[in-house]
Amino acid sequence: MDRLRIDVQALSPPPVMFCYWADAKANQGFARMQNANVAEIVAKHPKRFVGMATVPLQAPALAIEELRHARERLGLSAVEIGTCPGGRDFDDPALFEFFAACVDLDVAVFVHPAAPLIGLDRMKKYYFPLIVGNPLETALAISTLVFGGVLERLPRLRICFAHGGGAFPFTLAWLNHGWAVRPEGPAAIPREPREYARRIWVDSLTLGASNLRFIVDELGMDRVVIGSDYPFDMGADDPVRAVESAGLVPAARTAIVDGANAARFLGLSPG
């Protein structure tokens, strides 16, 4: 962290440990073990780490129970979830109460693909499930969150998506156009998708300077936080330098690198 000029890092479980495929009650016990471990590390190094919980979101009622435990007993201020937990998209009514609980408990939500599902039968080679599948998963997750009216009903929901929002920023113009010319969009949400898109956060892990500049332009300079994907090989070797060298305007670069955006997302004091 010192070598990469990271003052504070958010610790989150690797997505393979979400275990949405498992028995829900057993997974709640596994989540509680993970959350206790994260909380212990944060307690030992409170100036260097903040913690994110995991919950058994294949069973939303148990997930809310574990979310409350993580927040009220362990002091974790964020939770990490997958893009399609338990086979449910974010517009599924079964997930709404979980998102509402995150608002009520003042818990930030970080979304990382747990496993790519879109077109998986056509992505057997070339490491495509992560290279192609993850960006598509994230784009669909954000789109269902928007068109499902979750952000309309929960305007205080703080939610951030990994990998720069995946393919979503690059499909936003299509979503906006579709909302304008098709009846399905206004029947679902009263405002154009771009307005809701500027309510989410994304991380800076775009692996391309021009991609990062585009995302800042589309979503706003106050909605991007530094992302690393550490320690995996699809992450950024030097996430701070990637932002500094992207050619952003100084105000955007400062907001991202100095951590003000991340502090607002996590509900922390900027200092």
Write a short abstract of this structure.
The protein is α/β, with parallel strands linked by helices and 271 residues long. The protein is 46% helix and 9% strand. The chain is built from twelve helices and seven strands.
Instruction: Please write the string of helix (H) and strand (E) elements.
Output: EHEHEHEHHEHHHEHEHHH
Q: What value does the Rg take, in angstroms?
A: 18 Å
Strand content: 5-15%
| Tally of strands | 7
Physical arrangement of strands within the biggest beta sheet: 1-2-3-4-5-6-7
Mean of residue pLDDT?
Answer: 95
The profile of the biggest β sheet is:
7 strands, parallel
Shape: globular
Structural class of the secondary structure composition?
A: alpha/beta
Low-confidence stretches: none
Helical coverage, percent range: 40-55%
How does this structure look, described?
The chain is α/β, with parallel strands linked by helices. Helix content is 46%, strand content 9%. The chain has helices at 24-44, 60-72, 93-104, 128-147, 150-153, 168-181, 184-188, 193-197, 209-219, 239-244, 250-257, 260-266, and strands at 9-11, 49-53, 78-81, 108-111, 159-161, 201-203, 224-225. The chain has a seven-stranded parallel β-sheet, sandwiched between helices. Strand 6 (201-203), helix 9 and strand 7 (224-225) form a beta-alpha-beta unit. The longest helix is centred in the N-terminal third of the chain and has 21 residues, at 24-44. It is globular and about 50 Å long. The protein starts with 8 loop residues before the first strand and ends in a 5-residue tail after the last helix. 44% of the residues are buried.
